[in-house]
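Progress against Task 2.4 (sequence-to-structure conversion) is shown through the following example record, which the project officer requested during the mid-term review.
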Amino acid sequence: MSPPKMRPIFEIELATDPESAAVTLKRHLASPDAALEGVASGHYAELTLPEAERHRWSPCLSVTLEERAGRTLLHGRFGPHPHIWTFFMFLHGGLLFIATVAIVWGLSQWLLAMTPWALLLVPLCLASHGGLYAASLFGQRLGAQEMLRLRETLESWLHPSDEGQQETDPAHHTAEERTGTL
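C-alpha coordinates generated for the chain above:
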Protein backbone atom coordinates (compact mmCIF):
# COMPACT_ATOMS: atom_id res chain seq x y z
CA MET A 1 0.00 0.00 0.00
CA SER A 2 1.47 3.33 -1.05
CA PRO A 3 1.17 6.43 1.15
CA PRO A 4 -1.60 8.88 0.29
CA LYS A 5 -0.66 11.43 -2.32
CA MET A 6 -0.97 15.16 -1.68
CA ARG A 7 -2.46 15.71 -5.13
CA PRO A 8 -3.68 12.39 -6.64
CA ILE A 9 -3.33 12.00 -10.41
CA PHE A 10 -4.78 9.72 -13.07
CA GLU A 11 -4.61 9.26 -16.84
CA ILE A 12 -7.30 8.03 -19.21
CA GLU A 13 -6.86 7.18 -22.86
CA LEU A 14 -9.64 8.72 -24.95
CA ALA A 15 -11.07 7.44 -28.22
CA THR A 16 -11.27 10.97 -29.67
CA ASP A 17 -8.78 13.68 -30.58
CA PRO A 18 -7.84 16.42 -28.04
CA GLU A 19 -9.73 19.15 -29.93
CA SER A 20 -13.00 17.19 -29.90
CA ALA A 21 -12.59 16.34 -26.23
CA ALA A 22 -11.91 20.01 -25.43
CA VAL A 23 -15.02 21.10 -27.33
CA THR A 24 -17.08 18.49 -25.47
CA LEU A 25 -15.78 19.74 -22.12
CA LYS A 26 -16.55 23.36 -23.02
CA ARG A 27 -20.05 22.42 -24.22
CA HIS A 28 -20.85 20.61 -20.97
CA LEU A 29 -19.44 23.42 -18.81
CA ALA A 30 -21.48 26.01 -20.72
CA SER A 31 -24.70 24.04 -20.23
CA PRO A 32 -27.06 25.74 -17.74
CA ASP A 33 -27.76 22.40 -16.01
CA ALA A 34 -24.11 21.29 -15.87
CA ALA A 35 -23.26 18.97 -12.98
CA LEU A 36 -19.91 20.75 -12.54
CA GLU A 37 -18.57 24.28 -12.86
CA GLY A 38 -15.25 25.31 -14.26
CA VAL A 39 -13.26 26.91 -17.01
CA ALA A 40 -11.74 25.43 -20.12
CA SER A 41 -9.16 26.94 -22.41
CA GLY A 42 -7.46 25.09 -25.20
CA HIS A 43 -6.50 21.64 -23.97
CA TYR A 44 -6.80 22.57 -20.29
CA ALA A 45 -9.77 22.65 -17.90
CA GLU A 46 -10.28 23.29 -14.20
CA LEU A 47 -13.40 21.61 -12.80
CA THR A 48 -15.15 22.15 -9.46
CA LEU A 49 -18.44 21.32 -7.84
CA PRO A 50 -21.22 23.90 -8.11
CA GLU A 51 -20.66 26.75 -5.66
CA ALA A 52 -23.72 25.84 -3.59
CA GLU A 53 -22.23 22.39 -2.88
CA ARG A 54 -18.62 23.45 -2.22
CA HIS A 55 -16.88 23.40 1.15
CA ARG A 56 -13.40 24.52 2.19
CA TRP A 57 -12.17 20.97 1.62
CA SER A 58 -13.88 20.52 -1.76
CA PRO A 59 -11.38 19.47 -4.42
CA CYS A 60 -10.70 20.88 -7.85
CA LEU A 61 -9.84 18.71 -10.82
CA SER A 62 -7.25 20.01 -13.27
CA VAL A 63 -7.49 18.33 -16.66
CA THR A 64 -4.97 18.43 -19.49
CA LEU A 65 -5.55 16.82 -22.88
CA GLU A 66 -2.49 15.67 -24.79
CA GLU A 67 -1.88 13.80 -28.00
CA ARG A 68 0.92 11.27 -27.69
CA ALA A 69 1.86 8.64 -30.27
CA GLY A 70 -1.45 9.01 -32.07
CA ARG A 71 -3.45 8.61 -28.86
CA THR A 72 -5.25 11.19 -26.77
CA LEU A 73 -4.41 11.12 -23.07
CA LEU A 74 -6.39 12.93 -20.43
CA HIS A 75 -4.25 13.81 -17.41
CA GLY A 76 -6.24 14.56 -14.27
CA ARG A 77 -4.88 15.99 -11.02
CA PHE A 78 -6.95 16.53 -7.90
CA GLY A 79 -6.05 19.29 -5.55
CA PRO A 80 -7.57 21.77 -3.16
CA HIS A 81 -8.97 25.06 -4.36
CA PRO A 82 -6.06 27.30 -5.47
CA HIS A 83 -6.66 29.67 -2.53
CA ILE A 84 -6.32 26.80 -0.05
CA TRP A 85 -3.28 25.38 -1.87
CA THR A 86 -1.58 28.79 -1.83
CA PHE A 87 -2.33 29.21 1.88
CA PHE A 88 -0.85 25.78 2.71
CA MET A 89 2.26 26.48 0.63
CA PHE A 90 2.62 29.87 2.35
CA LEU A 91 2.48 28.14 5.74
CA HIS A 92 5.02 25.49 4.67
CA GLY A 93 7.33 28.22 3.34
CA GLY A 94 6.95 30.23 6.54
CA LEU A 95 7.83 27.20 8.65
CA LEU A 96 10.88 26.52 6.48
CA PHE A 97 11.99 30.14 6.88
CA ILE A 98 11.52 30.04 10.66
CA ALA A 99 13.42 26.74 10.92
CA THR A 100 16.30 28.14 8.84
CA VAL A 101 16.52 31.28 10.98
CA ALA A 102 16.33 29.14 14.15
CA ILE A 103 19.19 26.92 12.95
CA VAL A 104 21.41 29.88 12.09
CA TRP A 105 20.53 31.67 15.32
CA GLY A 106 20.96 28.53 17.43
CA LEU A 107 24.34 27.71 15.87
CA SER A 108 25.45 31.29 16.45
CA GLN A 109 24.43 31.01 20.09
CA TRP A 110 26.31 27.71 20.39
CA LEU A 111 29.48 29.15 18.79
CA LEU A 112 29.33 32.09 21.22
CA ALA A 113 29.14 29.61 24.15
CA MET A 114 25.57 30.68 24.90
CA THR A 115 22.63 28.37 25.51
CA PRO A 116 21.35 27.51 21.98
CA TRP A 117 17.66 27.84 22.91
CA ALA A 118 16.75 28.92 19.33
CA LEU A 119 17.36 25.33 18.19
CA LEU A 120 14.22 24.36 20.11
CA LEU A 121 12.20 26.02 17.34
CA VAL A 122 13.41 23.47 14.76
CA PRO A 123 11.48 20.46 16.18
CA LEU A 124 8.50 22.74 16.70
CA CYS A 125 8.60 23.71 13.00
CA LEU A 126 8.94 20.04 11.98
CA ALA A 127 5.96 19.10 14.15
CA SER A 128 3.95 21.97 12.65
CA HIS A 129 4.90 20.80 9.15
CA GLY A 130 3.67 17.30 10.07
CA GLY A 131 0.45 18.82 11.39
CA LEU A 132 -0.11 20.66 8.10
CA TYR A 133 0.48 17.44 6.17
CA ALA A 134 -2.00 15.60 8.42
CA ALA A 135 -4.53 18.41 7.92
CA SER A 136 -4.17 18.14 4.15
CA LEU A 137 -4.75 14.37 4.28
CA PHE A 138 -7.76 14.90 6.55
CA GLY A 139 -9.20 17.42 4.08
CA GLN A 140 -8.55 14.98 1.25
CA ARG A 141 -10.41 12.27 3.16
CA LEU A 142 -13.35 14.66 3.70
CA GLY A 143 -13.42 15.43 -0.04
CA ALA A 144 -13.00 11.82 -1.24
CA GLN A 145 -16.61 11.42 -2.38
CA GLU A 146 -16.44 14.78 -4.15
CA MET A 147 -13.25 13.67 -5.93
CA LEU A 148 -15.02 10.55 -7.09
CA ARG A 149 -17.99 12.62 -8.28
CA LEU A 150 -15.71 14.98 -10.24
CA ARG A 151 -13.98 12.09 -11.97
CA GLU A 152 -17.14 10.13 -12.72
CA THR A 153 -18.86 13.21 -14.16
CA LEU A 154 -15.83 13.98 -16.32
CA GLU A 155 -15.77 10.39 -17.59
CA SER A 156 -19.50 10.46 -18.34
CA TRP A 157 -19.06 13.66 -20.36
CA LEU A 158 -16.22 12.25 -22.44
CA HIS A 159 -17.45 8.64 -22.63
CA PRO A 160 -21.25 8.57 -22.32
CA SER A 161 -21.35 4.86 -23.19
CA ASP A 162 -17.94 3.94 -21.64
CA GLU A 163 -16.96 2.41 -25.00
CA GLY A 164 -13.33 2.79 -25.92
CA GLN A 165 -12.35 3.99 -22.47
CA GLN A 166 -9.13 2.56 -21.19
CA GLU A 167 -7.26 3.65 -18.10
CA THR A 168 -3.54 3.84 -18.51
CA ASP A 169 -3.00 3.36 -14.77
CA PRO A 170 -4.63 0.11 -13.59
CA ALA A 171 -4.10 1.10 -9.94
CA HIS A 172 -7.23 3.28 -10.04
CA HIS A 173 -9.97 0.67 -9.88
CA THR A 174 -11.49 1.00 -6.41
CA ALA A 175 -13.06 4.18 -5.06
CA GLU A 176 -10.30 4.55 -2.49
CA GLU A 177 -7.58 4.14 -5.09
CA ARG A 178 -9.32 6.55 -7.45
CA THR A 179 -9.30 9.28 -4.84
CA GLY A 180 -5.89 8.49 -3.35
CA THR A 181 -7.33 7.96 0.12
CA LEU A 182 -5.78 4.57 0.80
